[in-house]
Structures are given as C-alpha cells and as structure tokens.
Amino acid sequence: MSPEILSPPPTPPGPASGTPAVEAEGVCRRYGRRWALVNVDLSLPRGSSLVVAGRNGSGKSTLFRVLSTLVRPDRGTTRILGLDPRADLHSVRRRVALLSHHSNHHEALSALENLEVAARFLGRPPHRAALVPKLAEVGLAERADDPVTTFSAGMRKRLTLARTLLQEAEVVLLDEPYGQLDPPGFRLVDDVVAALRSRGATVLMATHQLERGAALCERGLVLEAGRVAWTGPARDLVRGSGLDSAGLAEGGA
Amino acid sequence: MRELSAALRKEALLQWRTRAQLAAVFVFGASALLLFSFAIGPDSAALRQHSAGFLWLGLLLASTLTLAESFHSEMEQRALEAQLLLPVRPAALFYGKAISNWAQLSLLGFALVPVMVVLYDAGTDRLGALLGVILLGTAGLSAPGTLYAAMTSQARARQTLLPLLLFPLVVPVLLAATRASSLLITGDPMDQARSWIALLACFDAIYWSLCGLLFGRVVED
Amino acid sequence: MNRDDGRPTAALFFAGLGALLLLVGSYWGLFVAPAETYMGDVQRIMYVHVPTAWNAMLAFTFAFGCALAFLVHGGWKWDSRMEAAMEVGVVLAVLLCVQGAIWAKPTWGVWWDWDPRLTTTAVMVFAFSGILALRHFVDDPVRRATWSAVAAIVAFVDVPIVYFSVRWWNSLHQLQSTPETVSSAFHWPLRINAFGILFLMIAAITLRSRIAALRLRTELAPPPPAPTPRAVTAAAEAGR
Fold first, then answer.
1. pLDDT > 90: what percent of chain B?
2. Does B156 touch chain C (CB under 8 A)?
3. Closest-CA residue in chain B for A99?
4. Which of B147, B154, B171 is closest, CB to CB, to C162?
5. Which residue in B has a C-alpha nearest to residue A156's C-alpha?
6. Interface test with C, best of B64, B71, B75, B151 (most C CBs within 10 A)
7. How far is it, in rounded angstroms, from Cα B79 to Cα B56?
8. Distance between CA atoms of A207 and A212, rounded to whole angstroms?
9. More confident position, A109 or C4
C-alpha cells in the first residue's frame, strides 16, 4: 500500500487541448415535481479530474447518471469525448464507467462470478487466473468464491470498484466512492484514483470527503439544489466557494 | 453475438444457483393439476378429454411465478443498470432472459407431462409432437412474459400486475396449444394439429421480434 | 383542437351533434325500420351494436396510433390522448359485450355464444383494462407513459391474432353484418348511429384527454426559470 496521497498527482501526459472529455450544456432533469438538475454546464478536458461536492439531494448522483447516459436529460445536451449519446449511445457507453452507490451485483452469485459475468460482456478474459488478481487489488481475493449476500456493505463497495475498473474506461465517474469503506478502503480509493489519472483517464468524483477529493483532483464544482453554485480549482473548494462553507464542511467528516 | 452468449451464460449461472426454485414451481404446477381433477370429479373420460386444457392452465399459472421471479436478481441491487452501462445492448439482455425463461417453462412442461398421464390417463403415442407443442407454447408465454416482468418488477403491486397484463395477451397461445395438445392426446384424424402448431409458430415469431424491439424502451430511463 | 384551458367548445359541439344523431338513428332503427325476417325485433339492437363495434375498434386503433406517436415522437399530448382513447375504448367494448349478451339470449338461448368478434372484444376489454391498471401502479409520469405505450402496442398487435385463433376455435359462425349483406332499409339508421357514436366518442376522448393533460401538469414540474448568467466553466478557470 502506497502512503496516503496528500498532494495532487502530476498532470498526466496526453493532449491537454482538443475535444473535451466531458461536456454538459444546459442540462436539466426532473423527477416528477422536482427539478433535480437545472441548467448545468460543464466542460472538462481530457485527463483532468473534477471533484463534485454538494449537500444530500443537491443532484450529484443525478448529474453522474445523466453524464454516464443511464438517464436522459429532459433538456440540454451532453457529450463524452465529443460523442453524442443521442446519436450513438453504444459508443459513448463503451467509454464511460460509473461507480454508483447501488452495488449493482447479483446477490446470488459469488464475487468472482459477478466479475466473470462482467468480463464476458466486456469481451475480457473471464478466467479465474485473470480475475482473481483484480479481486486482490481491492482486497477481496480470499472471499472470491463467497456469495455476495454474505458480504458487508464495504466489501460490496470494493467489488463494485473492481468491476468498474475492469471496464478500463476513458471517463470514470465515481459516485461517493468512499461510502461504506473503512480507512484502508479510503486509501484504496485514493490509489485507484491516482492510478486512473496516471493512465490518462478523466475522473469525476462526487464525495462528501472534501479534503481527500480536493487533494486528488484538479478542479472542483459545487452543486446546490441542482444548479452549479461554484466552480474553480479543487484547492479552493473547502476554503472559499462563496457559499455556506460551514454547511459543506460538515459533510467532510 | 458475444453479448447474447454472455447473457445466456449469466442466466445459466443464475438459474443453477437458484435451482431450488425450479423444484418448487414444479410442485406448484403438479398440485394445480391435482386440484383441477378434484374440481371436475373422478370422471375419467371427462378428465382425459380436458387433460390438455388442464396442462396448459397449470403451465400458465406456474409461469406467473417463474416470470415474476426472473428479474429479481437484476432488480435487487440494480444489476440491470450496471449491465446496460458495460455496455450491453438491451436486446441481448432481453433474449438472454427470455430464452432462460423459455427453458425453465419448457422443462416444467416436460415434467408435468407424466403427471398429466398419470392423473388423467392422458397418454399419447405422438410424444415428440407433444413436446414440440410444449416448446412452441412456452415460447409464446416467455417472450411477452419477460417483457412484462421487466416492467412489473419495477412497479408496485407486481404480483397482480403481471398476470393481469399477460393472460389476455396469450389467449391465442392457450387456444392453439390446448387444441394441438388435445388433438395429439385424443386423436387427430384430420391432422388439424398442424394448423394450430403453425399458429403458435406465427405468434412466437411476431412476439419474439416485437418484444425484443420494445425491451429497450422499458428498461431505459 | 382545443386549448386545455377555457371551454372545450369543439368537444361540446361534437357531443351535442353526436347525441342528436344517435337519437335520430336509434328512433329510426327502433320504431321506423322494418323488423328483420328471421330474428324479429331483437335484431333492432344491431342498430346500436354494429356502430358501437366500429367505434370501439376505432378507439383502440387510435390508442395504438397515439402509442406509436409517443414512442417515436415524444410529446405528452399523445400520452393523454392514448389514455383517453383506451378508457373510452374499454367502455365501448364493455357495452358491446353487454349488447352481444342481450342479443344472444333470445337468439341462441345462452348469454354468451363465443362469437369470434365478441370474444375478441372481451379479450380486448381485459387487455386494455390491464394497461389502465398498469398506469395506476406506476408513479413516475415518464415511465408510466412509456410502459403503457409499449403495452398498448403489444396488446393491439395481438387483436387480429386473437380474432383468427378464436374463429378457428369456434364452430358457431356468425356472418358479418356489414351493410352490404343487409337490405337498404337498414343502412341509414346504421350509418346515422355510427356517426352519432363517433361524434360522442370524439367528444369523450377530447374531454378525457384534457383531464389527463391537466393531471400531468400537476405531476410534472413546470420548466425551470431562464438560465442564470452562465456558470464559468472549469476550462475557463484554468487561468486562475
């Protein structure tokens, strides 16, 4: 285990200009009577990283679901690596991975079998020899053959992390990656984000762990009631976003 | 298609893990057949004449259990969402699930044939054709059933909604399968079973394509 | 046709005209037209039965069209119209079954004779009532609209299949009583009633879809206010 990362990793090589990795323009999404997202604009260059903060219910998960194409925006457009999901959904999905706070597992299957199912869909080698190392990376190697029903919440999260990494996507969206994890799990997520960034992936992370998120990412964005309330460098996120920082900092516990 | 074969393997794995359920559904189907005979009375001739009807009614009732459960694993922890994002085309997921349901229902049908033979004295010397009718008929139940199961497993009152939606739709399947099976059991001098089997095949062709096309709209937001 | 607010003048006009036509046609059919040779006065129910049948089928076909329009095009008005058309169709279809039973009892001696068209109608009642029930159990408006449109398409495609399978299944045949097989004395009340019921149906569907649209309006939030001055994008922040 590498030591806890406290400073942002070096900017990865690769084109800093050119097609942005993630774009959102005027994105609005409603659920029944409530607008969960209102006029969200976003533009992230390739290889950069964004930490998204906001209170519960501010729309972070909805934003990630829209960006990952799981959910269609009611208004506005999104683009991933220049591709429009309305034109070519399949290509967009191939390039995006979402770690959602639902564990998305088949409870009756074992950890290894869940990975195997995903690997087969992705066209990656589904053999034990290829997948057990992936489980080892997230600390689940000894429980590889146990059914997921026996897992704790933190272990499920680790498995979800393993499956997300299996996709080797260019744009990775992590929705509350630290949720349910223990302190070694926190370090695991830090390592994962660092590894993703060093291979050039664009990482977006929604979290209440503001200090950690700000340390790992370049840019920051704050959502409030579905609107973008603040954007800026991640290091300014905790200090001065011009909002009720006391309310936000509470979530950093 | 790679995605389809991956989906089929996943279904096979899930089915194997929950195989106790198959036995439970068989017991349900067999007890339904038993109850039908109590409802009619110990009139062997009447029982024999209506045996095909009882078989298919029993299968239809049991299918609601099977179909309703079929999306349980996908919805429990929202596994379906993750699969869509891998990406997997919705059609591949649909056909994987529909084929898996078809296999389950066919096995159930095959297993109920000896029960029917014993309870209703309804043997047939055209067993192969009867098994073929079971295959075609359960296919007709499985395609729309899988589509509706995907919907109702995400809605409230899911237990009542699925049969409510499915039963009127599969009236042609029930008619054709029952008539064809009955002719195979009681005798078919004018070879009418063939046209009923053709009707079943037609229904299957239409609904396996239509439901595959529409499945995407049901699971995407 | 109408705006959702304000008096539904066109619908009321259709309703009035339809009621008038139905009265005229029914009077003609019940009292003026000659009795049929074999079936006697019971046959007079045909003057309401056949037009109801045409219109029920029309309602369900319109619902199918709206379902397609919604899935292909989008647009909430198609969802409202589809809901209205299905409800009106179910009402007409139930009426059809009742009329059929009233006709069957004195004619065949039984309440139900498994006539292919009537049986198909009964199946349609169950199928579309099921879809209306589905709508009740889904809270999210988008999902509700999409799922019921899908179900409506699946159910409608089944209708001809049900019809043909019941026809082959049933030995008791009933000849189609289209105007060509009926003498000209019977045409006019039939046609008048057909249009009468048609206009009433148009009025009913229009009014009912207004109600559905109004309900949607309470369920769906109004569009968000105009965008605030565009939030500075993260790319522009690179300079800081």
1. 70
2. yes
3. B82
4. B171
5. B77
6. B151
7. 33
8. 9
9. A109
3-state SS of chain A: helix, strand, coil percent to 5?
35, 25, 40
Give the residue from A216, A121, A225, A234 showing the smallest Cα distance to A177: A216
Q: What angle do CA C145, C149, C152 make, to 5 degrees?
A: 140
Q: How confident is the model at residue B44 (pLDDT cuts 50, 70, 90)?
A: confident
Count how many residues are written for chain C.
240
A153: which chain B residues are within 8 Å (Cβ-Cβ)?
A: none
ipTM: 0.92
Instruction: Give me the residues paired with residue A220 across strands.
Output: A51, A232
- Which residue among A104, A113, A117 places its CB closest to the CB of B81? A104
Provide the residue type at B141 as one letter: L
Using an 8 Å Cβ cutoff, are C129 and C87 in contact? no
Is the CB of B77 less than 8 angstroms away from the CB of A108?
no
Do strands A22-31 and A75-80 pair parallel, antiparallel, or not at all (unpaired)? antiparallel
3-state secondary structure of A45: coil
Interface of A with C in 74-113 (CB under 8 A): 75
Nearest-CA distance B208 → chain A (Å) = 22
Which residue from A5, C154, A114, C163 is spatially nearest to B86, judged by alpha carbons? A114
Please write the tens of the pLDDT for every residue from C42-65: 777 888 888 899 999 999 999 999
Using DSSP's 3-state secondary structure scheme, residue B217 falls into helix
Residue A59: phi, psi to the nearest 5?
110, 10
Name residue, tokens 């001065």.
A240
Structural element, H or E, at residue A52: strand A49-54
Calculate ∠ Cα C239-A202-A136, nearest 5°. Answer: 140
Ramachandran bin of A125, using left for φ above 0, alpha for ψ from -120 to 50, beta for the remaining angles? beta
Helix/strand/coil for A233: strand
Residue corresponding to tokens 């209102």 = A38
Cα–chain center distance at A59: 14
Query: What is the predicted pLDDT for the residue at C70?
Result: 96
Interface test with C, best of A219, A224, A239, A241 (most C CBs within 10 A): A219
* CA C169 to centroid of chain Cα atoms: 27
What one-character DSSP code corresponds to residue A223? E
CB B2 within 8 A of CB B93: no
Instruction: Annotate chain C with DSSP letters as a single string.
Output: ---SSS--HHHHHHHHHHHHHHHHHHHIIIIISPPBTTTBGGGGGHHHHHHHHHHHHHHHHHHHHHHHHHHHH--HHHHHHHHHHHHHHHHHHHHHHHHHHHHHHHHHSSS----HHHHHHHHHHHHHHHHHHHHHT--SHHHHHHHHHHHHHHHHHHHHHHHHHHHHH---------GGGS-GGGHHHHHHHHHHHHHHHHHHHHHHHHHHHHHHHHHSPPPPPPPPSPPPPTTGGGG-
The CA distance from A125 to A128, in Å, is 9
Q: What is the pLDDT of residue C182?
A: 47
What pLDDT is attached to residue C28? 75
